[in-house]
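Could you please consider the sequence and fold appended to this message?
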Amino acid sequence: MKAGRYATSRQKACQHCSNAKAKCDRRAGRCARCANRGLPCSFLRAVPSGGSDRDMGDNSVAGLTSPVSISNLLSPSEGLLLSPGLPSPEGDLSAETDMRRSIVGSTQSMPGNSSPNYASTIFTANHVVKDLEPNTTDRESQNLETLDFSRLELLCPINVDDISNRWLHTYVPVPGQKVKAYTPATATFIYRMLKSYAALTVHGRGVPPFVHSLQMMEKSSKLPLSNCLSLVHICEKPLPGSEDVAANVLQREMTSLYEQHGTYDDMTLLGAFQAYLIYSMVLFFNLSQGSNPFLRQAMINLQDLACSSSRRGLVCTAEQQRTRPRWETWIVAEAKRRTLYVMYLFDSVLSAQDGLPTFLGTELEGLPASANKTLWRAETRREWEMAYNIHLADWLEEGLRIDELWPIPADLDEAGVLKRRSRVDLWLENVDEFGTMLYAVTCCTHGG
């Protein structure tokens, strides 16, 4: 008998993301959205039982009880309600017969469904049982991908004190400062891109592109970030006149993070740095706190947090030696650098609002530009290691540096300019949306 056209589920999102109509990254074990919310993550996979298309949807098949409606398996709160006796997708696994008994038992007490349109939204008991079985391959891969962030081999190749003193340079110029003259269009582009990062977190659609998805699996960095991603939801649709109340809640959390940052380990400090940046952007873009003096002090504190986090390392030791680092070490280094670059862009937005000049961040010279999307989005260690081997083969010399996106030095000859442009072209071949944003800002500002 010919198999049904939709015998294999075409669902491209887990059940929670599908119910919320949100994008799902389909990461093995648990998608990032479910991981952020501590929700079970499961996919419906219809498995044909050998019948025809008609048999699969017909509730009059001999030997089967009334079909199980999807709506009877969904709960308003969890999205997947298992009948009494059914395990959760992440709990202890029961035998298939136990699950079948629970489902069939619940359906026997249900009245027959006489609606003519219900057949398109049902599965037989056998199909539902198969769908609820977790993917053992995913579970095994999840166990294999246990990450260890306790041994980070990082170094800091720049003077991080210049990061914490950056706010002071606006009022007390230092020799060698170079003013960045953003055009109105470029300034608007930066403003709207950073605003989208704040909106992304406030609406619960994911994490901004300077937070690595696997950071949420690490307990130490997860605490400041999880608190942040939960707390900013109060700013999604504030009632008229309640913006100040929401702002006070965020400000208290920011004050607590800053006061305790001296006691944090490297991962927790990174999470605190990222959370503080998110809070600051939400205050500015979502709660209209641009004129609040607290935000100016918050920027000083943010640069201090950036300095403390950067002091513990911004580059993998292996990166300097042109070898492949540990995945965990690379994740931390890349997330730190991306967060640092976003902080500098946010600083330029605040300076522009106050009518202050914006200076080129020459203290960051020599740091790598953002990594390619294959490395950043890798979901398994093997996938990342293969991608990094390709990266090393592509970049026989060191990878692109952030300062190669700045103005071309006047003393650089024609051959040097061509080589630099060739390196930028190679970098652009595989950048993600974050790298595209960086290039758009630097190209429109400095040319190249």
In short: The CA atoms of residues 66 and 111 lie 9 Å apart. Strands lie at 68-69, 122-123, 154-155, 315-316. Confidence is low (pLDDT under 50) at residues 46-144.
